[in-house]
Design brief:
Radius of gyration of chain B: 27 Å
Structural class of chain B: mainly alpha
Order of helices and strands of chain A: HEHEHEEHHH
Largest sheet of chain A: 3 strands, antiparallel
Mean pLDDT of chain A: 86
Low-confidence stretches of chain B: 193-205
Low-confidence stretches of chain A: none
Oligomer: heterodimer
Number of strands of chain B: 3
Shape of chain A: elongated
Number of helices of chain B: 7
Helix content of chain B: 55-70%
Number of helices of chain A: 6
Largest interface: A-B, 33 and 35 residues
Number of strands of chain A: 4
Radius of gyration of chain A: 19 Å
Strand order of the largest sheet of chain B: 1-2
Order of helices and strands of chain B: HHHHHHEEHE
Distance between the termini of chain B: 31 Å
Helix content of chain A: 55-70%
């Protein structure tokens, strides 16, 4: 994959992380590692851990989530995050935007991704043409 | 969780480095962050972690300097949303200078704006308080024009503003200060991207 495409993919994933975290918290309160594992199990992506905690700090400062330290059986307290009402509204709004956008993109990309499109051979042909 | 002495030292070293890098933040916030990262390490590494598992856990978090930078960036954005003061805009812009050209431009324009605006307010005030000892001396020629400010004696050259210098200086300076304040606030919101650089990566990478 060309470098520019990889960069684009990183940017795309970066822009999705906020929605992914809000979606992970939709079912109920989770602590940091549970959020990470929910994201990993619920999709084909894993999250760079050092980026999630600062982002949770931002979501809290925006009033989208709230946090609480809870004693656990593991011997140390854990910080649980839960969606606020504002966070739930934001999550719904972002999910709707995402659905509309992805549907329109899927329609636009249909010629490229259809079963008979044979994308690999087309990419190879383009590369051969460049070289 | 039972950590060996060496493992405990490794965790303490990481957390101390993180705490040190976060020293600009409020003490309560630093304590909260360090405790949360500590809890994450304990959860992720599991009971009786091997040195390899512990090293892997810390590596996944990234170097403490980078992790702290992400927190500090989020904190600076939070301040930007909360409100701006002259000192805060200049201080944050100065830190921002190291992050990119846009930060340097915003810092220089803000510094110039506050300097010029503050000077005009002072000049107007001086004219109001000492009308016969404060003037702006303009000199024009075919190739250039110069302006000089004189305080402490009677006007020597052409003083086009007269007593109008007081309201012009005060109001004009205040307007420049206000516009600079708005520009600085806008610049931080517009150009400062606080989002962490690395976020999601495919599982197969």
């Amino acid at each position: 994959m060309p470098d520019s495409a990889e960069k684009w993919e990183v940017q795309l994933r970066k822009g999705s992380l906020e929605l992914a975290i809000l979606a992970a918290l939709w079912q109920g309160p989770l602590y940091g590692l549970e959020i990470l594992r929910t994201l990993e199990s619920g999709s084909e992506i894993v999250v760079v851990e050092g980026t999630v905690y600062p982002l949770l700090t931002r979501l809290r400062s925006l009033g989208l989530v709230e946090s609480e330290w809870v004693e656990s059986d593991s011997g140390h307290p854990r910080k649980y995050y839960r969606l606020t009402e504002s966070g739930r509204q934001r999550a719904i709004a972002m999910a709707q935007i995402w659905s509309r956008f992805s549907a329109s993109m899927a329609h636009l990309l249909e010629p490229l991704t259809a079963p008979g499109a044979n994308l690999e051979s087309k990419v190879s042909a383009v590369r051969r043409g460049k070289s | 969780m039972n950590l060996t002495v060496d493992s405990q030292k490794t965790v303490d070293h990481y957390l101390n480095a993180l705490r040190k890098e976060l020293r600009e933040l409020l003490e309560d916030d630093v304590r909260d962050i360090v405790e949360e990262i500590h809890a994450h390490i304990l959860d992720k590494a599991g009971a009786d972690p091997s040195p390899e598992a512990l090293a892997e856990t810390l590596a996944a978090l990234g170097p403490p300097e980078k992790l702290a930078l992400r927190y500090r960036t989020e904190e600076l954005l939070r301040r930007a949303r909360r409100g701006r003061s002259v000192g805060r805009i200049l201080r944050d812009s100065l830190r921002w200078v190291v992050l990119g050209l846009s930060g340097l431009i915003v810092f220089l324009i803000s510094a110039a704006g506050y300097g010029i605006g503050g000077f005009l307010v002072w000049l107007g005030s001086m004219k109001a308080l000492h009308p016969h000892r404060t003037s702006v001396d303009l000199q024009f020629s075919s190739t250039m024009w110069t302006a000089s400010f004189q305080s402490g004696g009677p006007p020597r050259g052409h003083d086009p503003f007269g007593l109008w210098l007081a309201p012009i200086g005060i109001l004009g300076g205040a307007l420049i200060l206000y516009l600079t304040f708005r520009f600085g606030s806008w610049g931080v919101r517009k150009f400062w991207n606080p989002r962490p650089r690395a976020t999601l990566v495919p599982a197969d990478e």
